[in-house]
Write a structure and sequence with these properties.
57% of the residues lie in helices and 13% in strands. The protein is α/β, with parallel strands linked by helices. It has three domains: 168 residues, 3-Layer(aba) Sandwich (D-Maltodextrin-Binding Protein, domain 2), CATH 3.40.190; 91 residues, Periplasmic binding protein-like II (D-Maltodextrin-Binding Protein, domain 2, 3-Layer(aba) Sandwich), CATH 3.40.190.10; 204 residues, MetI-like fold, CATH 1.10.3720.
Length: 485
């Protein structure tokens, strides 16, 4: 049902986290419900870029998570007598968050497939809306039913159920996949696709709120046990699952799902009342603040770590040298995305780190490795006579390094360090996958809320450019001062 972005990576990380955190948190003595009651909080993971299931709306001047899934989570928390805490993150991270204990459950329109049941447990199906295709209304005569899509260009989210079904039933069509549903919608609107496979309520929501789109039934024959939406829990959370299933039964008995969808539709219409970028300035402003905070802290601690690593690497003690070299090679040889997820879910299994803190630590640890190599290059570029001259006037090795070597090295490597600082600003965007509300995270939220493809991208590009341009001018100023000294 819901997009399955990063399912392969998530599966790999679940295995890694099991090793780091000592395996699954479930045990024969299930205390999942009691732990939550002791804390008084129900922590729920979601990915708010999939209306009408979950998305964001501005309420009383503040951005809040809304949608059918959020209403269901509220009801579950009410029935359990707990305070609801919604934790936003990329969809590919939600099941990992459940498995590693970062959250108590994930409600994000996910399908309880057999593959996923190997990693997490699921509740009863709380909603099954069916499958549909979204098409351009001007092509409705040409594609007025699913059979006519054979041979057409069909889009679906990468790794999703819709992608799997399209490949099975439309093998003669050009099946294209993208990571984000909004990107598929924009491709459809621009004529790059003839149809997009979606969950029926999602297709209905897009069609109802955009006069250019129409919905047609997909006509798939499906197994309701795998295609409906269910709530995910950590393995062995039977007591929690039992109580949640009671809430789901209560919701079905009172027929509250249509009411939840109606409420979600109202928020979607409210979002479309004003889709100007000025209306969403707070989203971009908050993203700018978090991006700036992460970048500044990562640069400061990255420099300090880099100096420490280079001293260790140049040390005559083999243990220190080998440790620093190994760290640098591992960091430089693995993707930053994996490092961010490892710190958040791995280290977070031991220490209760927020997404912002974990993201900052991961970026700083990554930057430190590159800074170390830059500094080492600057030290090696100096004439060896500098050490001899310092020794001749009685300076110790520490004083030589502090007053002679490092100042000259930093002067030589300043342009390279400047490039690293600029890279940190741009690469910090990766923290959006764990739910940090940086610029990229807010970009995706605004695109999902407004259905506008280009304008939010242009705004974020302009903000990043102003940030890096200002930083470049500042770095050039200090470079000129060093050259004049």
């Amino acid at each position: 049902m819901k997009r399955n972005l990063g399912i392969a990576l998530a599966t790999l990380l679940i295995f890694i986290m099991s090793v780091v955190a000592g395996g699954t948190k479930a045990s024969a003595d299930d205390n999942s419900l009691q732990k939550m009651k002791d804390a008084g909080v129900l922590r729920v993971a979601t990915s708010p870029d999939y209306p009408p299931f979950e998305f964001q709306a501005t309420i009383d001047g503040k951005s809040k998570d809304v949608g059918m899934d959020i209403e269901i989570a509220k009801q579950i928390a009410k029935d359990l007598g707990l305070k609801l805490k919604v934790m936003d993150m990329d969809f590919g991270s939600t099941l990992v968050a459940v498995q590693t204990g970062k959250v108590d459950m994930a409600i994000t329109g996910v399908n309880p497939t057999e593959a996923r049941r190997q990693s997490v447990d699921f509740s009863k199906i709380y909603y099954n809306g069916g499958q549909a295709f979204l098409v351009n209304k001007k092509q409705l005569k040409e594609f007025n039913n699913a059979k006519k899509l054979h041979g057409a260009k069909i889009g679906a989210q990468t790794g999703s159920l819709q992608h799997k079904l399209a490949k099975q039933d439309f093998s003669d069509s050009d099946i294209q996949s993208m990571d984000k549903t909004p990107n598929l919608i924009f491709a459809l609107k621009n004529g790059k696709l003839d149809a997009v496979g979606l969950e029926k309520p999602v297709a209905e929501a897009y069609a109802a709120n955009n006069k250019d789109f129409a919905m047609i039934d997909a006509g798939y024959k499906l197994d309701a046990n795998e295609t409906g939406a269910a709530i995910a829990f950590a393995k062995g959370s039977d007591s929690l699952a039992s109580e949640v299933n009671k809430s789901i039964d209560k919701i079905h008995k009172n027929n509250w799902i249509p009411k939840y969808l109606k409420t979600a539709g109202k928020y979607m219409k409210d979002n479309l009342q004003d889709t100007s970028m000025m209306h969403y300035w707070k989203y971009f402003y908050n993203g700018f603040l978090n991006t700036t905070l992460i970048s500044v802290l990562a640069v400061i601690f990255g420099i300090l770590l880099g100096i420490l690593l280079v001293l260790m690497k140049l040390s005559s003690w083999k243990l220190l040298s080998w440790t620093a070299t190994s760290y640098i090679e591992i960091v430089r040889g693995t993707p930053m995305m994996v490092q961010v997820l490892l710190v958040y879910f791995g280290l977070g299994a031991v220490l209760n780190l927020s997404a912002l803190v974990a993201g900052t630590i991961a970026i700083a640890l990554n930057s430190g490795a590159y800074v170390a190599e830059i500094i080492r290059g600057g030290i090696n570029s100096l004439d060896k006579g500098q050490n001899e001259a310092a020794a001749s006037i009685g300076l110790s090795k520490v004083d030589t390094l502090r007053f002679v070597i490092l100042p000259q090295a930093f002067k030589n490597i300043w342009p390279s360090l400047g490039n690293e600082f600029i890279s940190v600003v741009k690469e910090s965007s990766i923290v959006s996958i764990i739910g940090v509300s940086d610029l990229i995270y807010q970009l995706n939220v605004v695109r999902a809320d407004t259905y506008r493809a280009v304008a939010p991208i242009v705004v974020v590009m302009a903000i990043y450019f102003l940030m890096t341009f200002t930083l470049t001018r500042l770095l050039n100023h200090f470079e000129r001062k060093m050259n004049n000294d």
